Amino acid sequence: MIDTPARALTASERQRRRAPVVNGLLIGGAVVAFSAVGIQVLNLGMTARTHMSMAVAEPVATSFSRPDIIDRNGRLLATDVEAPSLFADPAILLDRDEVVEKLTTVLPGLDQNDLRAQLADKTRRFVWIRRGLSPKTAQKIHDLGLPGLAFRRELQPHLTVAFRERRHRSIGRKARPDGLAMPLE
Known about the structure:
Blueprint (H helix, E strand, L loop, with lengths): L10 H36 L22 E2 L5 E13 L7 H11 L5 H9 L6 E4 L4 H10 L4 E11 L1 H7 L5 E3 L5 E3 L2
Helix pairs in contact: 2-3
């Protein structure tokens, strides 16, 4: 038997022979990936949920406090103070008119008509009533014992006396009453 020399394949012939193998691998990988996703979707759809929970008043994070602002001598100029804020859940309010009347005794500047309109929508689950209350006012509202009202502790900016003094003082400038500085004449 005589050996015949093997003919060298050209680049285009090699590419033509590899194309079905590469295409088969790509299609097979796609089928496996889509099957895995489909199985997970079916598992989630067939799993029985025994309970659903919804937290309205839980904070997203424990603290969003900003750093204190100090001057070059280390004196505190501004900081954050934790203050209660009042909100209502209209879906669980028993008598919105009673709530509005009792709240206006503690919060005299409250717009009664606007608050009644907001609390009338029973599909809403959250309505801000007043933010940044003093602890004394928050306790008075709490003592009213109205269901559907709750408090959320929020950080409110607080400017110190040193900061307010500094707003009116400026080197080489006159201070205006609104805190802005104007150049000397």
